[in-house]
Design a protein that fits this description.
Strand content: 15-25%
CATH class of the largest domain: Alpha Beta
Helix content: 25-40%
Number of domains: 2
Number of helices: 5
Mean pLDDT: 92
Low-confidence stretches: none
Structural class: alpha+beta
CATH architecture of the largest domain: Alpha-Beta Complex
Distance between the termini: 34 Å
Radius of gyration: 17 Å
Largest sheet: 3 strands, antiparallel
Order of helices and strands: HHEEEEEEEEHHHEE
Shape: globular
């Protein structure tokens, strides 16, 4: 945790479940190394600057949309991070425009099978679509739909402040965002994962 900031280390220390803490720390270290590589700087030169719609930003903030500063100034890199079951995906847009946000999401099928998921996460049209699928197909489809919704809402900057059951996962977004379903096999992920990337403008 040498390159993590004080707020990140404090959050990690507060996580009592060992696998959760390891995933958190690994994700933050990977994100910092990823950003440093794009910016061609040493990871230690970056200071975390997470932005939360409710809490704002500041050195004490350990959550929200990830970002970094260099020598006190915005690094000019808009980032997205998603973790699931020991794996992480990262995305970046190299820009100083705060509204140009990537959104990436990684989901495991085991996370979309709990009772009530369909009601809280899917639109009426999506629930109808499920009726045409076999149980195995339905589980994979749920994971893909949830990954697409999360990626889209991250790119829009709202996250789950918007009811996901009002968001059509497979419709073309009407706000210029490009939504891409990622090939998890090509990414080297094991079976059971779905992933999506949302980016403003053209892909």
């Amino acid at each position: 945790m040498a390159f993590l900031d004080q707020a990140e280390r404090a959050r990690a220390a507060g996580l009592k479940d060992d696998p959760t803490r390891r995933d958190f720390v690994a994700g933050r270290i990977a994100l910092r190394a990823f950003a440093a590589g794009i910016l061609a700087v040493h990871p230690g030169e970056l200071t975390a600057a997470y932005v939360c719609p409710d809490c704002g930003t500041g050195p004490e903030n350990d959550h929200g949309r990830p970002g970094y500063r260099i020598a006190g100034l915005p690094a000019g890199l808009n980032l997205s991070l998603s973790r699931s079951h020991g794996w992480a995906l990262l995305a970046a847009v190299h820009t100083r425009e705060p509204g140009v946000r990537p959104g990436i999401d990684l989901e495991h099928s085991s996370g979309v099978t709990f009772p009530g998921f369909d009601v809280v996460a899917l639109t009426p049209a999506e629930r109808e679509r499920l009726n045409t699928l076999t149980p195995d197909q339905a589980t994979r489809w749920r994971a893909a739909a949830w990954a697409r919704k999360e990626a889209l809402l991250k790119s829009r900057g709202t996250g789950l402040r918007v009811d996901p059951a009002t968001v059509e996962a497979f419709a073309e977004p009407g706000d210029g965002i490009v939504l891409i379903e990622l090939d998890t096999f090509a990414l080297g992920l094991p079976a059971g994962f779905a992933a999506a990337l949302a980016v403003p403008g053209t892909a």
